[in-house]
Each structure stands twice: as C-alpha cells, then as structure tokens.
Amino acid sequence: MANQFNSPENTSTYVINPEDAKECARSLLQDRLVTKEMGGVFPAAFEPSPGQMVLDLACGSGGWVLDVARTYPTTDIIGVDISQKMIRYAQAQAGILHLLNASFQVMDILKPLQFPENAFQFVNARFLSSFMPKGAWLHLLQECLRVTQPGGVIRLTDCEAPFSTSSTHEQIFALMKYAGQLDGKSFGPEGGMHGITLLLIQFLRDIGLTNIQRHAYALDYSHGTEAHEPNYQNFMMTFSLMAPWFVKMGVITKEEFERLHNQASVEMQQPDFHGTLFFLSAWGTKPANS
Predict the structure, then answer these.
(1) pTM for this structure?
(2) Homologous superfamily of 4-285 in CATH?
C-alpha cells in the first residue's frame, strides 16, 4: 500500500512525513529539550487536580505525556497524533514504564476533536505551526475551548526560526520561512519572520480566555553548551526530514539542499559556533461561566 504522505493525491499539511521513524526519534529529542528549558511540564502556577484529565495535541512520540504521567500519577493524560507509528511507539513506552495513567489515540486535530465537552483541565499544544494552515487555527482553538472544562487552562507554545553564526543555517532557515509563506502557514511579511509567536496571545483572547499569561525562552545551543549536541542532532534530522518539502515547494533542488545540509553540519560543529532558539509559551483560563 502506498504511503499516503507521498501519494500524488496527498493533501497532508505536514512538512515532515509523520510516519518516518526518524521523525519519531526527533520528536522525542525535541520534547526533552523544550521541557527542560521550560523548567517543567506545566506553568509554575498550575497544578493538575487528582482525578482530572490532561490533553496533549499533536503529541508526537509522547515525550511530554509520559513526563506528566510520571510526575502526576493521579492525573490521566491523553496524547493524540495523526501518526500511527508515533502512537504505537508512545503506547509501547507507556507500557514499558508502567504508566497506566497515560494513553494515546490516533487523531487528526484539523478535524473536530473526538472528546466530549468540558473533559479536560489542561490542554497542551506545542509547535503546531509547522503543519497548521493559517485558516485552521480558529477552528482548532474553538475545539480546544469546547473540550476544556470551565476554569481549565489552554496553553500554546511555538517558536520562530532559530538564528546562529552559521551562514548555511541562516540560508536553510530562510528557505524554511519562504516555503512556509508559499505553503500558507506563515503569518509574517514576505522575507520576514514566521510570525506565529506574535499571535499566540491574540488566539487565546479570540476564544475568550481570561488571565492570559506568557513566558519567553531562549535556548542557547552554542558549541560547548549542554544543549549543543542534542540540538545538533535535532537540527540535522529536521533538515533531512524537511528536504522533500523544500523541493516540493520549489525553493531549492535536491542536490543543492544536500550540499547545504552537509555544510550546515560542518559549521555547527565548529568551536566558534553560536546559536539561540527563541520560543514563547502563552496560556489562559476558560471562564467559569462558559
């Protein structure tokens, strides 16, 4: 059976094949990096109540869900993702770790969420902008509002392209932004930033959340830092996995991108390499009278 992601009729909005085994490994690596930089699985002022439920959208290989399940054994956590391979991996990990409070479902979050109203105390969504068409955000957030209980919290976390001292990395990130504009995912001006971090708070306001808060993070992955090697692995896998999308969008040839990918690997391993990834987390509360 042909892989749907690669079929001519494919209408997937994903820039990376979600069924690729390398994406499973990359997703888990990214979860660990981001959760560590954020200082934990939840905002500092939030604590899930025993017996309540938590939802993670586009959970990937389940890293965040498993971390929550370990930390809060009396809270039930559900992760959903479009990838069957990701969900199988996450379910297997939950079984190996005996985390009976963690469960996973295959689900396309661009369609109505298959949960009842007011089911969750906390809804988490990290780095959705890579596959979310601009016009799909409002519908998804309305669905998030529907399944969040009054007094519950919805949190969005996303990032702009990193920047570094590597000229080749900057070329690849520029291609990423340009391809995102062509693919209808960018909110920024032509030639500018992706723009998603400028809108996270507005998204939460638009669905009527209150007590909206935010926290910005700067992940330093310069050579010699603790984050350098895992980010090197993350970016090299990301670049490789995004290559078919770049070619599909017509922003570069396969051969030219391979050259850039090899050069980016060399430059990131230089002792004078410096890089920073900025990302923003924003969250708000569903009013009690909703």
Answers:
(1) 0.91
(2) Vaccinia Virus protein VP39 (3.40.50.150)
